[in-house]
Design a protein that fits this description.
The chain has 363 residues and is an alpha/beta fold. Helix content is 53%, strand content 11%.
Length: 363
């Protein structure tokens, strides 16, 4: 096999489905089946997870699959825009949909789309009214809409959007929403109990990529033996960004030096730089000083004991913290996706090579 940098199938780009894509079949099917069933359990769903976990890619995969179904329309809108206005405009520019609105003599000139229609059947006075008119026509045409919003955060416009979606749901219009967001941002939205639609939306946290699937991918694409592919796969810990980044740097090493002619530690150093620049620096900046101390303690204890897990009792002693106080930080770090607390009485770093990053930034 010939390896050329220009043909590298792994990517460090965000927000699109990469050539080497490991599908999360269970969660993908769960989301799709919810929306397409005759009576959906949830009209709104969130995909949550730590930075670099693949939220946007999964949403794009769901959007593409639903978009291929008969009678479904998908609209992706910018979270920084006027959401209702963007949704109305997004629907209007789809030729087959626009034709339905024109035939029904709907006047949306107040939004600056279309033209003023003499003797119009209905005239929109604002975005929310315009969407009601559109959704009414689309329901008659048996069209269903999936709206996708990437990296949503709470704002007054999001609140307005939520209230409008509640109104459309009450009218039984066929419109559904799939959103991605960091765990803390989704919690901030769902804490607003008055936002009925988003408060009731199902939040689904991403699981790690399957290690066996990563191993098989590396074996095939990088032409590796099983043992080497397994070592690389386990290094990623199933973290989506690490899967792409490690594959990317290993491919480049193969193209520059050839198989067996480079030091794997050089590849890992490249991986550390990529993880730091594209994810870990931002994650670290968003943590409190005490959060960082807890993480540093976990890393120190794990390194000292040559193990992957640190006992909670040892962590508390290391930073001189009471049990009640520590519980707050433990819960927050687990919820954020940075720490794994599945083993009773112990904690471990969930992100790959995060210990190396912590050491570089604290010692």
């Amino acid at each position: 096999m010939k390896f050329e940098e220009i043909k590298n199938p792994y990517t460090l780009q965000f927000s699109y489905i990469p050539p080497q894509f490991i599908e999360r079949s269970i969660i993908t099917n769960e989301i799709i089946n919810n929306f397409i069933r005759e009576v959906p359990t949830f009209r709104g769903m969130f995909i949550t997870g730590v930075r670099g976990s693949g939220k946007t890619v999964l949403m794009g995969d769901v959007r593409n699959k639903i978009g291929k179904l008969d009678d479904w329309i998908t609209i992706d809108i910018n979270p920084e825009s006027n959401l209702l206005d963007s949704l109305a405009r997004g629907l209007y520019i789809i030729p087959e949909i626009k034709a339905l609105f024109v035939k029904a003599k709907l006047d949306f000139s107040v939004l600056g789309i279309g033209v003023h229609i003499e003797n119009a059947e209905l005239v929109a006075s604002n975005e929310e009214d315009a969407l009601k008119m559109m959704l009414g026509i689309l329901k008659k045409a048996k069209k269903k809409i999936l709206v996708t919003i990437d990296e949503i955060t709470y704002s007054t416009d999001v609140a307005r959007f939520s209230h409008a979606m509640s109104s459309y749901a009450s009218a039984d219009y066929d419109i559904y929403v799939l959103m991605t967001g960091l765990i803390e941002n989704i919690k901030a939205i769902k804490n607003q109990k008055s936002l009925t639609f988003l408060y009731r939306a199902k939040a689904r946290e991403l699981d790690n990529l399957n290690i066996t699937a990563i191993c098989a991918d590396y074996q095939k694409v990088l032409a590796l033996d099983r043992e080497t592919a397994e070592a690389l796969a386990f290094c990623t810990k199933g973290y989506s960004l690490a899967f792409q980044a490690l594959g990317y740097h290993y491919w480049n090493a193969l193209s520059r030096y050839g198989a067996g002619k480079f030091d794997i530690d050089d590849v890992y150093r490249e991986l550390d730089i990529t993880l730091s620049e594209l994810s870990y620096e931002k994650i670290w900046d968003e943590l409190s000083e005490t959060d960082r101390k807890v993480l540093a303690a976990i890393d120190t204890i794990c390194k000292k004991n040559n193990t992957d897990v640190a006992k909670v009792e040892d962590i508390r002693k290391h930073i001189d913290m009471t049990s009640n106080t520590f519980t707050t930080y433990r819960t927050r770090l687990i919820d954020s996706g940075i720490v794994d607390g599945k083993k009773y009485g112990s904690l471990s770093l969930k992100l790959p090579r995060f210990g190396e990053f912590i050491r570089f930034n604290t010692y």
